Amino acid sequence: MTTTVSDRKQGSIPPSHALRISGAVLAVSSALWAYLVYSAPLDHIQGLIQKILYVHVPCWFAAYAGFGLTAAFGALYLWKNDERFDRVAVASAEVGVLFCTLGLVTGPIWAKGTWGHWWTWDPRLTMTLVLWFIYLAYLLLRSFTEGSTRTARFASVYGIAGLAAIPLNYFAIELFGGAAMHPDNLERDSLGAGMGWPFVLGAATGLLALLHLILLRVDLETRRVAASPALADWEHDEGF
Amino acid sequence: MTAVIARNLEKRFGRTIGLDGIDLDIPTGSTTAILGPNGAGKSTLLRLIAGLARPSGGSLEVGGQPAHGRTARARVGFIGHATGLYPELTARENLIFAARLRGVGDATKRIETQLAEAGLTRAADRRTGEFSRGMAQRLSIAVGLIDDPEIVLLDEPFTGLDGMASNRLVERLKGLRRRNRTLVLVSHDVALAAQLADAAVVLRRGRIAHRESGDPLDPKILENAYSAASNLGVS
Amino acid sequence: MNALLAVLWKDLLTEWRSRDRAVAMLLFSMLMVVIFHFSLPGGATTATRAYAPGLLWVAFVFSALLGLGRSFAIELENDAIERLARAPVDRGWVLLGKTLANLVILAFVQAITVCVFALVFEMDLTPIALELAGVVALGSLGLCSVGTFFAAVAVRTRFREVMLPLLALPFYTPVLIAASRATNSLFETGAVSFEPIQFLIVTDASYLIASFILSDFILDE
Fold it and tell me: Domain map of chain B by residue range?
């Protein structure tokens, strides 16, 4: 879709088709999900605080899915050398870290409400923290590398490597993890009646939100690239 | 037999276009000069042939293999802007390392010859960190040629050399020509290029603006082409 | 393989000439030992001895990071990294050569660090010296393999000293967890439990293979 100069000046370029569709689906899904969360029965042990899990779990899903996408598109970039893949990778990382942060915020809130501790070295929580560090390293690597080709290449490599780090960290924590302070954990299967659907829909909504925000970010990036002046600076010193 | 073949070769750095569709054939045993103003893409082209970066588009083959791969890298010698020397090592040790890295068999004799050619026999056991600019440049050329590569790429090799060293290098390059080595030379010095090369390519804004071949090359034609390329008026 | 040996020789020779890395790493380790000694109350007691394995690995990690960062900084000085990138072999061999060189230098620093630690914490480590060396070697291989790889990346960014620990941290955690567990059980019982060792071997292998394969991409300009 071509944008004319007058369009740019007005700053009102219509969003792409994909964005419209994903936005609509997300709106519907979110509304449904919110309703289900509201009307779900209270957990007889934990009470109201358990409801924050309905937000926490989808964040968790989205955070991991986000990084999976970052790594996958990084690999595609290395293979095909097409910078559009890199745009999706960085979009996935930025949105993914958002969900990861949200997960790290909602997790302790739930923990405090149920166990009385803000933080535990529970494998799941620790893994989310590790993932957050990987995201952070990825994004900082991008900020601090100069030259967009080099940035894309380094970031892609780190994305792929980061993906490999996740299972290794998981097993290390599972097998040898910290203090043996595993609090009486509510099993994930021990949900009462009427609690299943909000989780399923929550996970789906979380992923949809991830997708929508990624599309939004990619769209933004594409426009930014299109609008920036062509860097035909033939006077600068060539070569690295 | 063609040593280097480029077809629609492109190199982008983000939004900057380094090379914009280069078609080039460099025959074996020829000496090609690459000329052009700053920012035209000369070093970029050379570095792609050297295997230091991947093309963004098009193809680039050296001896029938992709330039970026290790088979191609084995056939190409590269002498760039920087010396690539390790200041803590002596001249001799720098050569030993380069020889081993490039897989040169029994290199002792060759190293001594290279040291002599570079006029560094007496300084052979001094740390290169102490070398003058000219000495470092001479050594870096010796290091680049340690494995006697079939194709030799030189990025402005005469920078930093005084008159005598310059002449020595010219003789050296002529010697390589006689041994049927393929030379590709980036230079600002049009007269020198005309003297050494039997083909020339003038780059402008990532494209080939002018091609010339003939032995010897006519420096006047090259001068005109160079000026035209340097004129950044309406293209 | 030749390239690996060439790079290994070159790095060790360069280090021998200047000794700047080893000395810096050693001084840093010693500083950490002193700090540990003063920051833990009551000096060497049973309680503080329990922390010794963990603290030992903390000292190892930080001095490793110091040395690893330097290992590629020297390549940038005269753009010598281009010669490495142009080696007519799989670039993984070049990186492996540097990894081994870093391991050797780190081992030297670690040997001295362990002795000083034993002194400060009043522990007799001679009966388990061999096993300890094994555990430390395995753990250090993990640190150096992934550390050298990211050093090559970090050195071409704007804040290289900060970038390297940041990149390496998520990869160091599995190694640290397993290695300190193994060292812990070694100190307590005099025998090494097999599980952490197994895990370290798998992790080291994964890191070595992954960095070998990905090396090609990080040595481009």
Answer: 2-230
